[in-house]
Amino acid sequence: MVNAKRQKEMKALGFLLQNDKEHYSVRFLSKAGNYTVEELNMINKIAGKYGRGYVGLTTRLQMEVPWIKDEDAEKVMEEAKDLGLRHGGTGQKIRPLVACKGTVCLHGNIDTQGICRELEVKYFGTDTPHKCKIGVVGCANNCAKANINDIGVMGRTIPEFKLDNCVGCGLCVQGCRQKALEIVDKKIVYNKELCVSCGECVRVCKTNAAIVKENGAEIFVGGRFGRGMRIGDSLGKIFEEEKIVPVIDKIMKYYREVGQKGERISTVMDRIGKETFIDNVLSD
């Protein structure tokens, strides 16, 4: 049986005690949800040598090798280091960052992978008042559930319509899943209230009748899921792609300044008021 002190020490290193209290699952970290073929081969090697020959995926796109014996843990750490593998991802820190494939997905409005990797280099594993999760998605499909992360980024493309260029072909109407567009008298009619700024109308239009008015991301703060659920609050505007990371820098700085030990961003916002939190981030 692994004692409580050892369990806590190992958890901080990404070795999570299983329910038999004798084995660990070791969490190997991805880069924005991606592994190279070489990394996969290395993880397989450790799974075959020290585990039971299989690997599991976590909900935050990391890989865990279960059934690691306590007496083998240091050997696994040593071999992982030699193989260039990273393990960890727990504690009152920035947890593994998650991004969808919006960089290459045909629905993506921003470089999700690039943004996530930049944020990971700056923030992963750094101390925060409580655990803090960051998620990046490329569009309103929200595959990685950005707004239930402490900080969430959602790619948006706000359209503008040039009716002189519209020929009434209906391609944009066919592409709009929100039914925000219709053709009336051979011209497009736009219902802004139904639009989720997915950008599909811009992508399918052949005559430049639907063009980009704004492109970038909406940023959410204070989301969480699990024992307590809270949908994150939008900062209320679209940020150009090059400004996304600087805005998150401001959020992180303010959270570390005002957050008390044990408070997630949602708890800070509940304590001081969400309007105060957002106003101070935007005015900094």
TrEMBL record:
State the UniProt keywords alphabetically. 4Fe-4S, Heme, Iron, Iron-sulfur, Metal-binding, Oxidoreductase
**Gene3D superfamilies given for it?**
3.30.70.20, 3.30.70.3340, Sulfite Reductase Hemoprotein, domain 1
Q: Name one GO molecular function term.
A: metal ion binding
Q: Does the keyword Magnesium apply?
A: no
Where the record annotates domain 4Fe-4S ferredoxin-type, the positions are: 157-185, 186-215
The catalytic activity of this protein is classed by the Enzyme Commission as: 1.8.1.-
Give the superkingdom in one word.
Bacteria
At the top of the EC hierarchy, this enzyme's class is oxidoreductase
Protein name as annotated: Anaerobic sulfite reductase subunit C
Name the source organism.
Clostridium chromiireducens
